[in-house]
Every structure is written in structure tokens, then in C-alpha cells.
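The instructor's notes for this session suggest beginning with a concrete chain rather than abstract definitions. Hand out the sequence below and ask the class to guess, before any prediction is shown, which regions might be ordered.
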Amino acid sequence: MVATTIRLAYRVEFSARLGWMSARRLKQLSNTDTLTGLPNRRAFDATVASWRRSGEPHALVLIDVDRFKAFNDEFGHLAGDDRLREVGERLAAYATRDVVVARVGGEEFAVLVRRCDRTDLCSAVEAARRKLSTVRPDASPPAALTLSAGLAFSTDRDDLVSRADSQLYRAKAEGRDRLAVEHAVQPSVHSV
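After discussion, reveal the predicted structure:
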């Protein structure tokens, strides 16, 4: 009788652990971009919402790979996937407790920064954007990918995404391969 009770208790505990591990793995899968391994849009939105409640100032950088469709058309989708993985890996190097990097769209990435200094962040983002713009395919002749980025500062989630998106579109409209920054007084563009 004791042995049966122990076996039953073990099976119940094992089943509970298995269920917990399955739920945890499912949550991880539902919050991770399968191509890059970065957090996906769902995880990014959850982070923005939780950080917003803190009331601290945040910065958001939206990064888009310029002319990515043309790149895919010329070099193929597998080469495009490789480049997205490489951009993701390079961006992931910047992730910390206060910096979340996510893939939020096809060839669009987001870097959310908590408690940041505006001047230092602008310099760091421009340096990172230049470094990321050196991603090249293995094909010949090598064609560099360029990146456009929009940077905005705000404590309001919708406002933050909207402002960063506006800056990204401005960077694209003003020639691509650049960072557009919205400053409190006047927006600026940093070109290569």
C-alpha cells in the first residue's frame, strides 16, 4: 500500500512538472522569433507595457534593412534569412537588463532602452548602425546591406512607437542608410 502511494505521488509530481515545463516552453516559443532567436513583437509589446508602468523615460530605436526585397530578389531568400540572422546576432550583443532587442517585423528590428542619456544613446546608436551596415552576403560581387533607423524618447508607449516610426520614415525619405533622431527642440538626421 505504501509503495503504491509513493508511486502514485511520484507520477502526480512528474506529471505536474512535465505540464509546468511544457507551459514554460510554449510561452518561450510564443515570445521568440524563430529565425533570429530574438524576442518577437509579442514579447516586445509586453516589455514596453511593463516598462511604461514604471514611468521612467525610455528610448526606442526602430531599425529597418534598406531595400531588403531587392536584396532577396538578387541573392535569394536563404541569403536574406542569413543576413537577418546576422543583423539579429549583432543587435543581440547590445541586449542587457535595460536594453531589449526584438525583431518586430519582416526586416524591422526594435531596440528599447530604459533610463538612458540622450547624447550617449545617439552616439551609440549611430556607431551600431554603421557597424551593422557592414553585413554582406557571400555572393559575388558583395553587396552591403544598409540600415535606416529612427530614434525617439518618450514615456508613453503609443507616443514612443509613433515617434520612432516617424523618424524611421524620415530617415528613409531623406536617403536611407541613416539615423533620424527626434530631439525636443528640433529633429536631426545623422547620415553616413
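Then share the key points. The chain is about 50% helix and 20% strand. The mean pLDDT is 80.
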